[in-house]
Give the backbone structure.
Amino acid sequence: MSGATVSSEERYSVFPFYICLDVSASMAGAPIDGVNEQLPLLRARVGEDPAVAEVIRLAVVTFSDVAHSLLPLSDLSLVEAIPRVSTQGRTSYAAAFERLREMIEEDYLKGRAHGDRWYRPAVIFISDGRPTDEPERWRAAHQRLVEPTWKRRPNILAFGFGEADPEVLAAVTEAKPNRAFIAGPGTEPAKIVPELLTGLIQSIVNSSASVYEGDARLQLPEVPSMTAIPVDHLD
Amino acid sequence: MTPVQAAVPQVRVDDLRIGDLLAEGGEGRVFLLPLQPHLVYKAYRRPVPAVEAEDLVAWLRGLPSTDPDAAARVAASAAWPCAVVVGGTVGAEGTGDAAGVLMPRAPRRFSIRHRDGNTRLASLSYLTADPAHRAAAYGVQLPPAVSRARIALVCSLARLLAALEAGNPSVGHGDLSTKNVLWSLQRGPEMFVIDCDSSECYARDGSGLAGSGLAGSGLAGSGRRRAMTPNWDDPAVARGGNPTPMSDRYSLALIFLRVVGAANFPIQARQRSGEMVSVDFAVPAGPGGGPLLDPGHPVWDLCARGLSVADPAARPPASAWVPVLEGLLEGTVPIEAHDQRPGPAPGDVVIRPALVPHRRNGRAPVAPGFSVLRPRVDAPAGGGLRPWANPTAPGPATPSASGPSVWSEVRAGASRSAGWWLEVHGRMVTSSMSASRRAEGVRLAVFCGLLDLALLLVGLFVVAMVVSPVIGL
């Protein structure tokens, strides 16, 4: 029988989530209002439950012409409030992917220095539009984010509504089944955003439970107004 | 053994006025009852044979005739099913199924008020981490690791489980997890167990009696799945299996480890993979500089045996924990604790003491090379036994994304020091009044005298050098 030592300092591996949110000008009005109403609920639901906060780390990245870290990767129990979001500019997917890659690498190294162990991070990509940067540019940035040789490459879930392009979202999730979702035609963004974030909160809470089983699983959010983007057949 | 038979109240779901949803789980949803605010209604998602719930209701209703003390303890410390609900689509009449059960609602004191003003159930998760982190996160003041309050909480749970074990038949809860075991220090240390409708009655040979008709119905059992919460489950039970009569014993040892140690000690995955587990356990120093919790105390042996996966049958019953924990609180070691040791420990979990420095920044250095479960000793300023803390007391300054402020650290440190001072003096008085511990009392009196003299001199110095010039003396 082999032996293992467990100390009072030993913590569970953490499950990092990066919410990557489109805040381009087209998100103005009901969509961004919905985001600003839901983010405090996300903080409360995850941060105020010690069993969930223990194993979940969450960051919020916003992107338009450029990408910002709205909330650095945090233990939400130690976060008083997530800053409000405002809209501006266009929709640079490249900026989002580049920022995500930088943040994940930095956060991982910082966490490791403090003795944290990570499950593979999850990126929740939310957009209401097509990328406004050149396809070569955002695809190159995306390629760096999902590069197979990069050990920290995240699992990506993508959610689109409004003018979002299903094919682009499928590419963002590397055409993996049940990773990209699109709102049904004509669905009001005012309805979609609260529904999406509510489902997302529940998915994060459910994912935290799987961490305690020693086998973290990314639980898909239930968003009734959205459907999974079908994966193409190979030619 | 004569199974207890007692009339079981049955309520039609149509006769209930169902209020707001209180909680939701895999097995059912729990609703408030506006007309019976002391009760909740748990509505099952899928049909559950009514006879199972009836057995549990009957078990407690019959207990006062054989053991009134145990009945009182269970009634006070557990949300035990008190009526079976039938009707509706899930428990339609004539099917033999229950739509749900009525259970007592956890008293308000088993909740915690966060800094944001909202109250939440006082789950065990608050206690299984560094209290400084919980203070920074939620503004709640919690007793330090290895404090009297934490030991007394576990003792309260052990008394309840001993009452369940002593019943005829005995009963196992089966899922003593963070969300099912609540705690309070408001009226002294207490624990309150919820979700008791998944409990199971056991025959003397350990076989389940679910649905065997204690209430007189005589229907066959259902083989109902009784899930255990991940991270609080019994690793001796195969995944997907139901808890055994030994599972509550494992849970009690695990809860002692986590609540008294104020840490998670994630051991189950290792135990499931067949590894021998060694736990490094930090113990603060007592007034005399030695470990507050003696590394040779029988409680460590109980804990190691209780956590064993190699030999679950050797896990000590809750009744063995009660005198040991009570002795720990009183500063005595019960003789029977030594006499009841059933031979050598299984050995897959081992406890050994080690002295380490006081933890800094919430993390204590871990001595390399140790391969066994060992209590560690921290400096007295960082913890120690102290009077009961109020979990709902306002906490330190509001935290931000950057973590606790220096001021909150200072306040927390002052609070811990004051608690330790009170504890030392309390122990001195208690020991001095006990004939068997008079020598310890004298030693503590000398220590307290020197401590107070030093504090007095520091106070006089501060007054002379700082306060007097300010007020013009």
Remarks:
- Residues 358 and 364 of chain B are 7 Å apart (CA to CA).
- Chain B touches chain A through 52 residues (CB under 8 Å).
